[in-house]
Design brief:
This protein is an alpha+beta fold. It has a single domain (about 1-95), classed as Gcn5-related N-acetyltransferase (GNAT) (Aminopeptidase, 3-Layer(aba) Sandwich). It has helices at about 50-65, 75-80, and strands at about 1-5, 10-15, 20-30, 30-40, 65-70. Strands 1-2-3-4-5 form a 5-stranded mixed sheet. A hairpin with a 2-residue loop joins β3 (about 20-30) and β4 (about 30-40). The longest helix has 15 residues, at about 50-65. It is globular and about 40 Å long. It starts with a strand and ends in a 25-residue tail after the last helix. About 25% of the residues are buried. The mean pLDDT is about 95.
C-alpha cells in the first residue's frame, strides 16, 4: 500500500500493488486544506484502505502546517474517532463539524 499526494489534481491517492484503490480530494486556501470527498474503489472496500489513506493525508497535512476543514463525511468521522487529529481543525470551526474540543473541560 502506498499513499501519494498529487497536488496538481488536488488529491491523495492510495494504491495497492500498483493499482489505484482510492482518493481523497482537497483544496488549499490561505493555510487551510479543505477535504471535500473520499472515494474507495468498491473492489477495495472493507480493507481499511480508506482509514489508512486519511491518516496519511492528515499526517502529511500536519507536516505542512496546514489547518483542516473536514467537509468530507469520511474525513470528519475519522477525526472524530481519532481525537489526536482534532487539533488540525481550527478551534472556531470544530462545532461546525460537530467535533469535540479536546482541550475543553466541559
Amino acid at each position: 500500500m502506498d499513499v501519494t499526494d498529487n497536488p496538481g489534481e488536488g488529491r491523495y491517492d492510495v494504491t495497492l500493488d500498483g493499482k489505484l484503490a482510492g482518493s481523497t480530494f482537497y483544496h488549499d486556501h490561505n493555510g487551510i486544506r479543505s477535504f471535500t470527498h473520499t472515494e474507495i474503489n468498491p473492489a477495495y472496500e472493507g480493507h481499511g484502505l480508506g482509514s489508512q489513506l486519511i491518516r496519511a493525508a492528515l499526517d502529511d497535512t500536519r507536516t505542512r502546517a496546514l489547518a483542516v476543514l473536514p467537509f468530507c463525511p469520511f474525513v470528519r468521522a475519522f477525526i472524530e474517532k481519532h481525537p489526536e487529529y482534532v487539533d488540525l481543525v481550527p478551534e472556531p470551526q470544530r462545532a461546525r463539524f460537530q467535533l469535540a474540543d479536546e482541550t475543553s473541560s466541559g
